[in-house]
Amino acid sequence: MLNMEQTDFTEKYEALLFQIPLFRDLPLNIKHLLVDKLDFTVYAIKKNDIVARQHTHCKRLMVLLEGRLRVDSMDASDNEVLIEYIIAPRAFATPYLFKLDTTLPATFKAMEDGVLLTATNESVFRLMSEIPDLLKSFLGVAGNCTKCTDLRLKALSYKNIRSRFVAYLFEYKAENSSVVKIEHNQVELADYLCVTRPALTREINKMMKERLISMKGKTVELLQIAELKRVIL
């Protein structure tokens, strides 16, 4: 890995590892088998460390155990485009591990100090061959990663700030709920939606005055769901 210092795999990190969707629902005996048979290394990462760089190959399963990553991609015009923020504990770049083309489409940079676990793709593949439940879990996670990318591109396809914000809210809204717990603060959210923070703040304030939403911190209540849906139709 890129200039990162190895650290010990503690019980705390083992517990965090088994919180990620890839491993979370596996039987306990299989979890113990994973720890024994995975060829993995744990790294302490520092703020601004490049964890993985765009256009390099994904050769290892990567799991962020602590910290946050910013994911950016350079487009054809050499413009840096924010893709997403990754918040631990979470595996990332999973769909690229076994693709024919394993080239990463973005750069993953640490936003704060954290901990990263990586495992060789050979050891991951060997375990998936032996454990059907792990293979099924991997396919589900890889599918969800593709879905998240599609949802982000859909949000950015809208031309105005309100539409992008509403699309984002419905992306994170749980089924049969009118309350949305968002992952980003307003600075991060403005970057994510490719708008300026003051413009986003003004639009959110307008929506609150129109009683379309109420917002406190990172919790948003959708007050008029039908009306909000019309914004993104």
From TrEMBL:
Keywords noted in UniProt: DNA-binding, Kinase, Transcription, Transcription regulation, Transferase
Entries under Pfam families matching the protein: cNMP_binding (PF00027), HTH_Crp_2 (PF13545)
PROSITE patterns: CNMP_BINDING_3
GO MF entries: DNA binding; kinase activity
Domain Cyclic nucleotide-binding: 22-136
UniProt xrefs under CDD domains: CAP_ED
Gene Ontology process terms (BP): regulation of DNA-templated transcription
Keyword Transcription listed: yes
Gene3D superfamilies hit by this protein: Jelly Rolls (2.60.120.10)
Protein name: cAMP-binding domain of CRP or a regulatory subunit of cAMP-dependent protein kinases
